[in-house]
User: Which sequence fits this backbone?
């Protein structure tokens, strides 16, 4: 049992050790294996085949297991570290300590969005991007999006999703208008914006965070740790609501075989969503 802390409360030593563990996974090649898994499972509604990770009910359990596997790898390097979370409703500007030189480094420069500061700047020699969907070998960010108009989600945006007592609803993809999952994943918006909550954070950071290779930015893990915590908060707010769909879909449902109900096993770990609903035996949030 270990604790995942709010990143803003990490000590200087805790940040140093976490950064060192990230760099060691990068050096050993393990980090890029995680990026490749995410690229492989970055499947959208319009594509054929199953969707385990995105635009799908198993968005939360799939990423919970993905983070657990990564955290395990980090803790093999240094048993004292765990994944912190980034509460982007509070630390919602480029001035947040998250982006300082002693932690994740800052925004990309104008010309090519290349991150020039902090331990993950390409020029420092320890963060070469290998598994990617673009040619760039350096970490990129573009805070606020191309026109600087994207803002981070607010507490009210999160509350709007969390208020929904239904976990997910048909058609179980990015077009579902009801349900906590699609409101928090961020395809259902509730306003004219092009995406909310989880998706909007990817858009606000920009650069490599925009696509399937988004784990190339270490902030991916801190973002998804907060998404994981928000799932827990939703569970606590609605103790009688469970994962949906609870049983297999009808044979004639167009999503049959494409999504994962409560007891169907998700690749690549053959884990069922039912096994991932409760993390309290493994870690807790502070
Ligand atoms: Cu993902
Ligand atoms: Cu994400």
Assistant:
């Amino acid at each position: 049992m270990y604790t995942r802390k709010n990143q803003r409360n990490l000590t200087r030593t805790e940040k140093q050790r976490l950064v060192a563990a990230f760099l060691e996974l990068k050096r050993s090649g393990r980090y890029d294996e995680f990026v490749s898994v995410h690229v492989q499972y970055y499947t959208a509604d319009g594509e054929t085949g199953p969707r385990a990770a995105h635009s799908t009910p198993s968005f939360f359990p799939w990423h919970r297991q993905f983070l657990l596997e990564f955290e395990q790898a980090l803790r093999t390097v240094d048993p004292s570290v765990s994944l912190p979370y980034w509460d982007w409703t509070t630390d919602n500007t480029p001035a947040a300590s998250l982006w300082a030189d002693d932690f994740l480094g800052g925004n990309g420069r104008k010309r090519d969005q290349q991150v020039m500061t902090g331990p993950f700047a390409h020029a420092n020699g320890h963060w070469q991007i290998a598994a990617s969907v673009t040619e760039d070998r350096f970490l990129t960010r573009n805070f606020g999006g191309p026109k600087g108009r994207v803002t981070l989600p607010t507490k009210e945006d999160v509350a709007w999703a969390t208020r929904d007592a239904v976990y997910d609803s048909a058609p179980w993809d990015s077009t579902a208008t009801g349900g906590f999952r699609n409101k928090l994943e961020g395809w259902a918006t509730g306003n004219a914006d092009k995406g909310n909550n989880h998706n909007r954070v990817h858009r606000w950071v920009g650069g490599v965070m925009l696509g399937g290779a988004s784990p190339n930015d270490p902030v991916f893990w801190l973002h998804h740790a907060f998404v994981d915590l928000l799932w827990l908060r939703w569970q606590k707010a609605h103790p009688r609501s469970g994962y949906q769909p609870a049983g297999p879909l009808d044979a004639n449902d167009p999503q049959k075989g494409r999504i994962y109900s409560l007891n169907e096993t998700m690749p690549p770990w053959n884990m069922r969503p039912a096994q991932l609903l409760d993390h309290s035996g493994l870690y807790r949030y502070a």
The two ends are 13 Å apart (CA to CA). The pocket of copper (II) ion (ligand 1) is lined by residues 38, 53-54, 63 (CB under 6 Å).
